[in-house]
Amino acid sequence: MGLESYLLVGAVLFVSGVVCMATKRNGIGLLMGVELVLNGANVNFVAFSRFTTLGLDGQIVSLFVIVLAAAEAAVALSIALNFYNNHLTIDVDRGDELKG
Amino acid sequence: MTYEKILFFIFAMSACGGALGVVLAQRVARMAFWLIISLGSVAGLYFMLHADFVAATQIIIYVGGTLVLLIFGIMLTATGPHVKIQTSPGELVMGAAVGLTLLFLIQGTVRSVDWNKAAMVTSGGEFQPGEGKGYNPTGQGNTIRPLGMALLGLRPDKDLGAPEEAGLSSGYLFPFEIVSIHLLVVLVGASYLARAKQRTRPTV
Q: Does B1-88 carry CATH code 3.90.1150.10?
């Protein structure tokens, strides 16, 4: 299988993540959308590392992305817990005190 | 149909199907289940791309770490046995329209680019189209040692056999150190943010 089929899989993952982030009202659901977007980007990195002269660099960047996604999930989860403690719900549409 | 194609179709279908399941599921626990399916099959795709260490990391950190964290989050923020926060139908239609447009745009872009020519241009003409291009170790399943040495700042996969005057390739020691400090700071900050606070009761 060539490069294009992997890029298409990455595109489907990315778009699903974007739609998930745009439509879900559950804070944890938003986090899952972010994970999907990062995975779509990672598929592209590893596919380019296999099929072009990018070589091992693509795999290293994808490793960094995986580690940073884990860190992001930890921070975002603690923010979600704080949100739940203050609002007694995880619905992000209820967090509208900061109206500009 | 070779075995590679059949395996690719299985993994690609379950990765895309899992992603669609995350979008379409209404209950957040089921979204977590579909996300496990999707991320696991992405790990399978990494194995098919000869990236064995990245695939193992994907399974260990994503499926074993991040998703367990998300499931704990679901448990700690649940108000009932099945949390169900509905999205309004108008928003769903809008999201589907935007998503389909974006997908159409991206796949059009992917199909319209000649990737072999692009790789030849960006590599300065050293790229030769054909099988066995890119990082393709002769003993497959062999990326752990080059990856570890690259994280220590050495690039034997690029420098061995290269002409002398080309100099040494850049490694990733400094980003590695930055990421390690970043992880430490993030863990301290997350546990500070999520700690149980003493509620100060207002005096009546």
A: no
